[in-house]
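Narrative of accomplishments. A recurring question from our advisory board has been how the design workflow behaves on a single, concrete structure rather than in aggregate. To address it, we present the structure tokens for one chain from the evaluation set, followed by the sequence designed for it. No filtering or post-editing was applied between the two.
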């Protein structure tokens, strides 16, 4: 059933639980590492032929029910006027962090076809190559997560600079978030127009916020994106990590499917957002490195916890580079096998 994933996103009956993995195309696969040995991550993103090849690698290797575009959440920053690099062993580094009004004013809005045309070309190519085997998911980073990279200049443990701007200069923060949310809205809508059959908004670091701060400083900007995307006719997935206390507010912000990380029990999430809301998740990514017996037990537990409403099996965050591809294959097959019996 090629549209199993899309049907689950809409809350429709499915034959078995659909499964895909965040970061399913990437560093744990030898096919990817062979390409990465001769190209940087950004070069792969910016060359549609390579992005297409990498996107298809897990689809060809495993029984996943969706492909997800190979790209990076930070790609919109460069055409906004905030170039960055991936420093070896350090992760992303923004060359000129945005920490004052002049920095925010330098950021520009742009049309996706102008600044990120290579992503849209890749989407068109991937759809052609998939030829209806499975649907294609597009994605983008959410405003808070993008803002944290912009303000901190890279990864952060406490998001101190980000929160200081948010608390001390709320008007400036609102301007920054307004620009980011509009760029992301345009970008995801362009992905749909290029052929993405679902889109996911990644708010990877939003769990650093309290519910009150999320509602005051983030939710309106996320809603600006998601409420618009809900009109495109494709499923919209909304995901964050560490969001147990934010789920109700994320649900209000928008999206058809709510992603849950491994620290939030699916049963709890179901009680918070309601039985009719499709949930996605939520195996701990490190369990893919656990002994097979424990891995199988935990997969069963996720499937059992998800009963009572629509469910898409996934991890609670992305696949880690040290993961054995055979473990990924096992989980994809096992989810289908176990959910067919229930």
């Amino acid at each position: 059933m090629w549209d199993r994933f899309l049907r689950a996103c809409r809350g429709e009956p499915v034959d078995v639980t659909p499964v895909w993995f965040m970061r399913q195309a990437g560093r744990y696969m030898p096919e990817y590492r062979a390409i990465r040995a001769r190209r940087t991550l950004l070069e792969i993103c910016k060359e549609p032929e390579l992005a297409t090849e990498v996107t298809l690698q897990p689809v060809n290797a495993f029984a996943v029910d969706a492909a997800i575009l190979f790209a990076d959440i930070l790609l919109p920053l460069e055409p906004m006027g905030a170039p960055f690099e991936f420093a070896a062993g350090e992760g992303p580094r923004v060359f000129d962090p945005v920490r004052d009004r002049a920095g925010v004013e330098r950021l520009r809005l742009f049309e996706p076809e102008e600044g990120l045309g290579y992503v849209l070309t890749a989407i068109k190519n991937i759809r052609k190559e998939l030829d209806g085997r499975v649907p294609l998911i597009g994605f983008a980073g959410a405003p808070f997560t993008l803002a944290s990279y912009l303000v901190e200049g890279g990864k952060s443990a406490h998001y101190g600079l980000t929160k200081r701007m948010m608390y001390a200069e709320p008007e400036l923060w609102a301007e920054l978030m307004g620009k980011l949310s509009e760029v992301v809205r345009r970008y995801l809508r362009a992905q749909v127009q290029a052929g993405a059959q679902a889109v996911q908004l990644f708010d990877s670091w939003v769990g650093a916020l309290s519910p009150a701060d999320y509602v005051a400083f983030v939710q309106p900007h996320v809603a600006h994106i998601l409420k618009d995307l809900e009109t495109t006719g494709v499923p919209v997935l909304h995901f964050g990590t560490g969001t147990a206390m934010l789920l109700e507010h994320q649900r209000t912000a928008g999206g058809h499917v709510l992603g849950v990380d491994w620290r939030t029990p699916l049963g709890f999430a179901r009680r918070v957002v309601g039985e009719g809301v499709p949930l996605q998740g939520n195996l701990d990514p490190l369990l893919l490195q656990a002994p097979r017996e424990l891995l199988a037990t935990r997969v069963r537990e996720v499937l059992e916890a998800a009963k009572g409403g629509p469910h898409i099996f996934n991890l609670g965050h992305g696949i880690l580079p040290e993961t054995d591809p055979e473990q990924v294959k096992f989980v994809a097959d096992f989810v289908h096998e176990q959910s067919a019996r229930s």
